[in-house]
Structure formats: structure tokens, C-alpha cells
Design a protein that fits this description.
alpha+beta, six-stranded antiparallel beta sheet, 1 helix
Length: 105
Amino acid sequence: MIRNTRIILLLIAGLTLAVATLWAQSRTPTPAVTRTQRVELVDKDGRIRAELKTSGEDALLVLYDGQGRLRTLINTESVVFYGSDGKVKTKIGAQQPGEGAEEEQ
């Protein structure tokens, strides 16, 4: 009987502690801003599949394939797609006003 009472008291204490912890966590304000210099997205094997980072004055989004090869690089001026051989396949760059379109006379 005493043993059962102890078990019940331990269960009640544990549940009380769990509820108090959850309540305290719900009262903790969520930060409005998270600051970092780099974010890595990794697959289940720990290989980097994407990075969001800064480089000098530029912000970059870099995407890798399953073998860790660079496949896409996006910055403020261009988007570059790479083949599995590592060579540039397509580059889309930002155009300056007036470039790429003939002005009407």
C-alpha cells in the first residue's frame, strides 16, 4: 500500500512538473527576428543540400545535388545553373534599364 502511494505521488509530481514546463515554454516570447550569417539545409546523411549565406555585400542562395555538387547559385544580380559536370549551363543576369530591348523612336 505504501509503495503504491509513493508511485502515485511520483506520477503526480512528474505530471505537475511536465505541465509547469509546458506552461513556462508557452509563456516564453518567440523572437521576432533570427540573425545569423549562414543557414545550411542538410539531408539525412548530413550532406549540405542548400545554403543561405552572405558573401561580401551580396546574399546568396546555393543549391547542391545529392552528391554535393553545386547546381544552382542565386544572388542579387543573377541566377546560374550548373550541370553535373560543374560547368555553367545557363546564366540569367539582371538587365540594366534599356538593355535587351530596342528603344522606340
